[in-house]
Design a protein that fits this description.
two-stranded antiparallel sheet; 170 residues
Length: 170
C-alpha cells in the first residue's frame, strides 16, 4: 500500500511530460511583429538643436542655439584650451549626436586643416545648420522645422516582382 502513491506518480510522469509545452527550437529565428517604417524622422543634429531649448518653450532662439553650441564644445574641452583634436571631436559627436560617425564630420568642421577644431570653427559649421533648419527665416527654430517627412519605401499596392507602373489602377 505504501508503494501505491509512488507507482501512481511514476505512471503519471510520462503523461505529465507530454502535456508540458515544448521548448522553443534554439536554432529557429525569433518571430517579432514587423514595425511599420517611420514616416517622420529627425537628423541627429536636429535632435541636438532641440536639446538647446533652454527655457522649455519648444523653440530654439539664435541665442539659445549659440549657447548650446558653446556648452557642447565646452563639454569636450574641459580645460578650455580653445580647440579639440579629432578623437575628442569623436567623443563630442557620440555624446551630442549619438554616434562617432555622424555628421558633421571633423573634416568638414576643421576649416583650416590643422587637425584641431576650435569653437569658432564649430560655430561656423553650426551657423549653416541654423540657416538650413530655420525654414521660415524668423530667427527661431521650432520642432516642425527639425523633422522631415519620409516617403514610404514601397508602394503598398505593388505586387512582388511587378514592374513599375503595372500595379492596380495603372
Amino acid at each position: 500500500m505504501r508503494h501505491l502513491p509512488i507507482a501512481a506518480a511514476l505512471l503519471a510522469s510520462p503523461a505529465m511530460a507530454q502535456e508540458q509545452p515544448a521548448l522553443p527550437n534554439p536554432i529557429a529565428p525569433i518571430q517579432r511583429p514587423v514595425q511599420p517604417p517611420a514616416t517622420v524622422i529627425a537628423e541627429p543634429v536636429a535632435m541636438m538643436i532641440a536639446a538647446f531649448d533652454a527655457d522649455g518653450d519648444a523653440r530654439v532662439t539664435r541665442a539659445e542655439f549659440e549657447a548650446g553650441v558653446r556648452r557642447s564644445f565646452d563639454s569636450a574641452d574641459p580645460d578650455h584650451k580653445g580647440s579639440i583634436g579629432y578623437i575628442a571631436f569623436s567623443d563630442w559627436s557620440e555624446r551630442w549626436l549619438g554616434d562617432r560617425n555622424t555628421l558633421p564630420s571633423p573634416f568638414e568642421v576643421d576649416r583650416d586643416g590643422d587637425n584641431r577644431i576650435s569653437l569658432d570653427e564649430l560655430k561656423q559649421r553650426f551657423a549653416l545648420f541654423f540657416t538650413r533648419f530655420d525654414v521660415n527665416k524668423d530667427g527661431v527654430i521650432v520642432r516642425s522645422e527639425l523633422v522631415a517627412i519620409r516617403p514610404q519605401p514601397f508602394a503598398p499596392n505593388r505586387r512582388k516582382g511587378s514592374k513599375r507602373g503595372d500595379g492596380p489602377g495603372n
